[in-house]
Amino acid sequence: MRCPACSSDDTRVIDSRLSDAGASVRRRRECQACSHRFTTFERFEREQPRVVKSDGRRETWDEEKLRRGLLRALEKRPVGLEQVDALINDVSRQIQLSGEPEVRSAAIGEIVMSLLPQIDEIAYVRYASVYRSFEDVAAFSKEIDRLRKDQHAPSNVAQLSLLAEPKTGRRK
To answer: 10 Å Cβ neighbour count for 101?
Structure first.
């Protein structure tokens, strides 16, 4: 790694830490020539598929475009940037793991719509209003009803009680 201060190639790593929920490595470095310290980030480069828009155009995957849309939906909501980054990483990972060379923008929207209610329900409704092109109050109401129904749907996961006695077959 070249030093940003003196352009020397002789640098050493002082400290390494995982960041972005393990998606990248943050390295603190020091130049051996001028003692300047700086930070670098290593990130696994995923081959992202191209995005097929609703009108048929094809674009390269743009994480920043997704970030802008999410930040707009999350405006003035109590959600940290770490949560936004984790959501973007989840969406990106799901798209990359599909293995397809192209992904429809509608599929990206559905992935976001499936993950966003877990972070913030208001942001979910805001995002849905743009993604699903709400045109009246009835559309908002219908989406809120769907969100409520999903909240009250029984989970398929059976969770054990932390306070229950374990069943060992022995009697006390």
So the answer is: 8
pTM of structure? 0.55
- pLDDT, tens digit, for every residue of 122-145? 888 888 877 776 677 777 677 777
Q: In degrees rounded to 5, what are phi and psi of residue 116?
A: -65, -35
Taking the C-alpha atoms of residue 69 and residue 93, their distance in angstroms, rounded to an integer, is: 18
Task: Write the single-letter amino acid at 161.
Answer: S
Distances (CA, A) of 67 to 76, 89, 126, 131, 152: 15, 10, 14, 14, 29
Token digits for 119? 């972070």
Question: Distance of alpha carbon 94 from its chain centroid, rounded?
Answer: 10
CA 80/CA 54 separation, integer angstroms: 31
